[in-house]
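ok so for the tutorial part 2 we go from a plain amino acid sequence to predicted C-alpha cells. step 1 is just haveing the sequence, like this:
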Amino acid sequence: MNLQELKPKIKSIITKHKLSIDERLFHICEILEENVAHYNWVGFYFKNGDKNELKLGPYVGEPTDHTIIPFGKGICGQVAVSNENFVVPDVAAQDNYIACSITVKAEIVIPIFVNGENIGQIDIDSNTPDPFNEADERFLEFVCKEVAKILD
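step 2 — the prediction. this is what the C-alpha cells look like for a chain of 152 residues:
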C-alpha cells in the first residue's frame, strides 16, 4: 500500500473519539507497521512533564529498554532539542545513536507540534538500509499534524 492510500485510514483513527488517545496512537502504529514494508518499529515519544526527557508512548515492534530518553541523547533526544526532522540512513554512522536492536539499520524521527511547541515525536526504525525518502518525511509530517489535533 502506498503512503497516500494510508492518509484516510490515519484520519479515520484520529476521529474515533470513543477510543482513548493512547488507543488511537497505538492503532496508528499498527497501521504504519503493517502497511509499510520498511517500517519495522513504530512508536511515539512525548515530553515527560516538565523534565528535559522523553517518555515512551504507544508503539508496535520489539520491546525496548529505552522508555526514557534524555533530551539531546540519541536520535529522538536530538529531535527534542532541534525541533527538526531527523532521517538517519545508516544508524551505524551516527555517533549519538542509542542502539535498540542489532537488526535496526535506519531511523526516521519527526516532531509533533502543538501550538508551536514540540511535545513529542513519531519514531520509526527500519531493518532496511537507507529506506526513507522525502515521501516518508512528508507522510509522517502529515501523521504528526493529525496526531497533534487530539493532543492539544
